Amino acid sequence: MSVNLPVLNGPVAFWIYGVKGVYPEFQPKDVLSEKALAIFAASVKDGCSAASGAFAVLQSDEMLLPEWKKNASIQKFLARNQPGSQPTFGPLLLVGGGDDVLFTESAGQRIFQRLCAVGGVVQRKVYPRLGHDPVVYGSLKDQIDWIAARFAGMPPPNDCPRG
């Protein structure tokens, strides 16, 4: 990682867990440090909050081995998991928090632009001053209203520029 935000260690662990789910031959020990591997084995299955807290004791540079990017499973996983690299199957509501350090405003803007570029129908809503977890709850009414409107047959809003 290029930043030192221990709060990101938990999501990194779940990402590693996801790689293992998609590529069973992948071994977390090939990319996680010994310290991180011990926590991984003990906490990831207990859920997001448990793992995020457990991994926060490590500095970011204590999480991954130096050569983690060269792992074949990691490379395949990254190549296939790029939002907006392929058309979507339906309309999307893309929600972000203005103070989210995990899914930053600039990351949300890049993904929005890529989704639009591949023909997506995307409504994008940014909630100023909300962080990663608070935006889930702060946007809940809008999420439910958006879903209810789709079930009611209303056309989805589209914030993508029209070409």
Biggest pleated sheet = 2 strands, parallel
Shape: globular
**Helical percentage:** 40-55%
Beginning-to-end CA distance, first to last residue: 37 Å
In which order are the strands of the major sheet placed?
A: 1-2
Describe the structure.
The chain is mainly α and 163 residues long. The chain folds into two domains: 6-80, no CATH class; 92-151, no CATH class. The protein is built from seven helices and two strands; from the N terminus they run ααααβαβαα. It has helices at 9-22, 34-43, 48-55, 72-80, 105-117, 132-138, 140-151; strands at 92-97, 122-127. Strand 1 (92-97), helix 5 (105-117) and strand 2 (122-127) form a beta-alpha-beta unit. Helix 1 crosses helix 3 and helix 2 packs antiparallel against helix 3. The radius of gyration is 18 Å and the shape is globular. The model has no long low-confidence stretch (mean pLDDT 88).
